[in-house]
């Protein structure tokens, strides 16, 4: 799907400011990865701890500084826990062991502590972190309880997913330097008290468009880490469009070989092999993120038609397309060969995808007659059902006959949509991605160097100030599965640019999906979010230093050099000075698992 309305002019592919941003990001990455002068390739020992070596201490983290906001926070003054070099992570049961290993991997680089994972004993010894799975825990399938006392930290949940979300909260309660890939001299204290937490909506996600510009497996894994950090649990991959087909299909090999060979602007494109896709899915699953693959049909199919001209209405393969217009291509809805193609492709994707969802697109097929469009979508919905998956489509499929369990992804910009409301009354559920609040390819401000503006500017407050439960008129809250923040990539070409567009808006969408409505408060959110800037910088992430957010002053650290990345198109504002931001390789970029069986 492309978010532009009919007749919208082609967008510039890559402005000079964006190219400069990407080059600076690459330099920053090289600087961050380079060991300090004279250092060996071995992991450096923790700093000596001498007073002169220590950075200026940041503001103390409070128990309520978590993003997304927890359901209930109960601080206990004076009950802080200090993580020490001899601390261990204890688990009750093998199902908690994998999460404990992830926690240890998050904490070891910055602390330099060994943090062994061991079995829990009774009574629990003081001084460690305990992860407990308890069937009686009344936190739902993704909730948790976290307790911090002077004697230790305990996270309890009914499922490994709940424990994992609790780990992300624990991570935020430590000083921001916990995100450093190198050991840091720090007082590793967590504020005392308890947090009880669970999500408002079951579906909380983001979308990455890999069709307009292709992003390799490491970039996708990095995005998964970003989602997991803020308790988002779905990654929607827009795998096909006019400019590229990005997933190998055994029964139609030219789709990837020919259709995946270009991208917007004429670059080399690329595609995922089946093993690449398995690697992405497995990495996501370990972080309790479900991959939602999208094959956009019947429009947005020029790349497929280039590979197989027999699918085109006139039977002639068009040339590759590297522009950004929409609505001109479609597979022939009257040709039985088209439905063989649909069944083969969706069948192979379904077999590779353990999650329940299969997204069929369905938007902007402007040249398909309404009756032919309805017949195509209804038949494709039945194909999806035959694979055992639940169909998801952009809300343009709303008028067609209902399929059991189907989900509409709504990207409108006005709350009045009687056609979608009617589909909900017939049984459809919604994932909300309003274009003027959740589309993270929109510019922050007129001088943002990359991005679109057809839905207006989306600053952080605009991304935050709406309620998914009441946003679409006539749609009850219980028909809303959740929220998703799409990032389309006509003008986004690198990992640094992806991160720049995601942050700081992605946490705003994450809070809408996770936190109770009663916690929604812009002033409180912006203050909590401000403390995450130093975390992102320590992790080597690019982000927009929005003037809306009271970012703390940055303190340089002696362990790494940083290259400046411009975050406004030539016009830095006095209220938001442009600071150096490293952009690559943080502690969340752990080695990915090998292909699953």
UniProtKB/TrEMBL annotation:
Cross-referenced Gene3D superfamilies: Chitobiase/beta-hexosaminidase domain 2-like, Glycosidases
UniProtKB keywords: Glycosidase, Hydrolase
InterPro entries tied to this protein: Beta_hexosaminidase_sua/sub, GH, Glyco_hydro_20_cat, Hex-like_dom2, HEX_bac_N
Protein name as catalogued: beta-N-acetylhexosaminidase
Family, per entry: Belongs to the glycosyl hydrolase 20 family.
Residue span of region Disordered: 26-58, 547-597
Native organism: Micromonospora reichwaldensis
Domain (Glycoside hydrolase family 20 catalytic): residue spans on this chain: 201-367, 373-516
Catalytic activity: Hydrolysis of terminal non-reducing N-acetyl-D-hexosamine residues in N-acetyl-beta-D-hexosaminides
EC number per UniProt: 3.2.1.52
Annotated Polar residues bias: 576-585
Enzyme superclass (EC): hydrolase
Domain Beta-hexosaminidase bacterial type N-terminal: 66-197
Segments of skewed composition (Low complexity): 26-36
Pfam families recorded: Glyco_hydro_20, Glyco_hydro_20b
